[in-house]
Every structure is written in C-alpha cells, then in structure tokens.
Amino acid sequence: MAAPHAPTILVAEDETAIADTVLYALRSEGFAAEHVLLGGEVAAKVRSGKVDLVVLDVGLPDITGFEVCRQLRTFSDLPVIFLTARDGEIDRVVGLELGADDYVVKPFSPRELVARVRARLRRRAQPASTEWQALGRFAIDREGRRIRFAGQALDLTRYEYGLLEALLQRPGAVLSRAQLMDRVWSDALDSGDRTVDTHIKTLRAKLREMDVTAEDAIRTHRGLGYSIDVGAG
C-alpha cells in the first residue's frame, strides 16, 4: 500500500501485461500508481494536479506518446519517462527534444524503471534558489536550475538546461561533443553526438526568440565542438 502523500505515477500503456508489471513495481516501492490505456486521457489527469510523474508509452492506440508529450509541455513541466519498444537514436532524440526526461526501451527491468522514476522525482523536489550569477547577457540560478537571457527567463527542457549550463561554466572555452555528452547525458549512454547537435539547434532558436542578435551566442567550432559567448551584460 502506498504511504500517505506518496508520489502518484501515471502509467499510459495499452499492453495490459506490461502495465500490470509496472504498476506492481511502483506500488511495491511505496508509490501511488494509476493506469490509462489511451493517450487522450493523459492531459486531463495531469491537469487535475494529482499526478507527479508520467510513464508514457510511445505506441499508444489513439495518439502517439510523442504527441501526448507535446501537449503536456504546453502547460506542464511534469517529469515524463518514455517507455517504448523503439530503440533507434532518432526516436530518442525526438522524445528528449519534445521535453521528455528519460527514455526506457522494452524489454526493461522494472527495478531500473522505478530507480529512474525515483531519480526524476528527487531532482524535481530540490528546493529552488534565488541565487543568480550574472554572466554577461546570461544569468543562472544553478540550484533552481533556471537561466535567463537578455533579462528574460528561458523555457528549457532538462537537457537544454544541462547543455547551456555546461557551456556557461566555461564561457569562451570549446567543449567537444564527447565532453558535453559526458556532462549532460551521463545517464543516457545510448545517445549519440547528433543529440548534442539537435539540442544546440533548439537552444539557438530559443535564444533568438529573446534577442534577435543572439545568433552568435553559441558558436560552432568545426571538428572541435561548441563554445558560448556571454557578451556584455
């Protein structure tokens, strides 16, 4: 039985056997767990405010998990873990780029899934900080995991934040793709260099939304990696 005030995990999975396994594993570790069969049911559950994390199958029968995640990210930053039989890099990149926090491929270990759920919730529970460090056009609150650019808060996914934070730790220094993968995707070892490039592209787009002169904020050094120019504050 779940403990009082236990985090509630919503599992969106149309294969009953898999759903039952996941629900049992979660409840055995003290979580509350709910189950839906259709992607169209997820948003309403999340809007109720009674869900703490979503385990989301990509291949749902009505709409894809990717589309569900896209819907969620229009109004919620709730942690999302994809659970899927798709193991191609492009699917991982798409899922993470849509704002998912993790990607677990079937067949999987229920114990590992629960550990990933616990890790995401632990990170989310970290208290926010009001300590901002000014870095030229940027300001960063590392404890609160927030970054501002040109005086405005950036709406970043977990990996976008990690990538930008890694660059801001050493303004002007060139970091290779391997270094960025090691610092930002250390818990997603099956991701490749293209993941870094994809996230750099979306970061540049978000910076340009804040300031049209931000084209050169993140610089590409061909064959070497990326660096950041923080500019003048």
Automatic annotation (TrEMBL):
Keywords, in A-Z order: DNA-binding, Phosphoprotein
DNA-binding region: 127-230
Modified residues (4-aspartylphosphate): 57
Record-annotated Response regulatory domain positions: 8-121
Domain of life, per lineage: Bacteria
One Pfam family here: Response_reg
Domain (OmpR/PhoB-type): residue spans on this chain: 127-230
InterPro entries according to UniProt: CheY-like_superfamily (IPR011006), OmpR/PhoB-type_DNA-bd (IPR001867), Sig_transdc_resp-reg_C-effctor (IPR016032), Sig_transdc_resp-reg_receiver (IPR001789), WalR-like (IPR039420), WH-like_DNA-bd_sf (IPR036388)
Coiled-coil boundaries: none
Protein name as catalogued: Two-component system response regulator CreB
Species this chain originates from: Lysobacter brunescens
